[in-house]
Amino acid sequence: MLYFLGQLGDSLAAFNVFRYITFRTAGAVVTALFFVFLFGPNMIAALRIRQGKGQPIREDGPQGHLLTKKGTPTMGGLMILSGAVMSTLLWANLSNGFVWVVLFVTISFGAIGFYDDFLKVKRMSHAGFSGRQRLLLEAAIAAVACFFITQLGEPGASTSLNFPFVKGLALNLGWFFILFGGFVIVAAGNSVNLTDGLDGLAIVPVMVAAACFGLIAYIVGSQNFADYLLLNFVPGTAELSVVTGALIGAGLGFLWFNAPPAQIFMGDTGSLALGGALGTIAVATKHEIVLAIIGGLFVLEAVSVIVQVASFKLTGKRVFKMAPIHHHFEMMGWTESQVVIRFWIISFVLALIGLSSLKLR
After folding, report:
1. Which of 82, 240, 275, 322 has a CA 20 to 30 Å removed from the CA of 31?
2. Which domain covers residue 325, as residue numbers?
């Protein structure tokens, strides 16, 4: 919305600043942050009243959670989504199709997560939305998003899978790209969802990944930078930097209330939406494989669950004391803060490795 003030720059030079993506990205960060700061306490109070006993706590999990987390409200993702969406609509160029595709996935996945959280709180059980139905809905939404991404991009390039660390290596998947891209988006959403199990554990790695993809979107959306770094130029994706800025600002605001001991949990409302947003941005910028590196912590969490379930079904034995893997380390004696901070360090290291792919090729 404010982007269009830049059109006044021809007559009033002061308005030229609204044309710069870097300025609007910074504005999106600050706006989303203060929005969550201002309205967060009221949202928490309202959710606490409506939910009563708060989010159900797993009885088979670490016993300390039953004491420290019982009664904490969930659906904190509403704070993140409202701040991020409002800030994006205010600062982004709303004529950019990529912005609307990312918002579509973010809001849709958030709605699915909200319904799942609602059922869990209503039933006071972990049995929320049917897993199969949820995945089918997510897949349909992701497929629609990927179809539009292929239409927004350059013919041929928009359906190609690019490989990091190797100059010019790309595989044109054709229409199969919609299935592949859809898988990336759904996998990202559910991986972040599995990671969200301790105070502050998911939101910081999400912000780290969002910052990385804000930079990637800015670079691949610029002809000069993309050519210099030997990356595929994807016109229009630079505007997604503003979206990632809004996600970071809203995430910082949420972390203020989610810092231990958490006043509110993100819930599926936030984790599915944030993961879906990251996945969509990765698909739009043609950096799907790099997402698996930068978001390697999310991959690790998801793989730990897959391995645990497969091992138990095939052999009757568990590989980990508890899955996802962050609970395994808790059961080994790590304190919650140790798990969270060490996992944050891992996410920072993986982010640096992922960003190195922009130059090492």
Report:
1. 275
2. 23-356
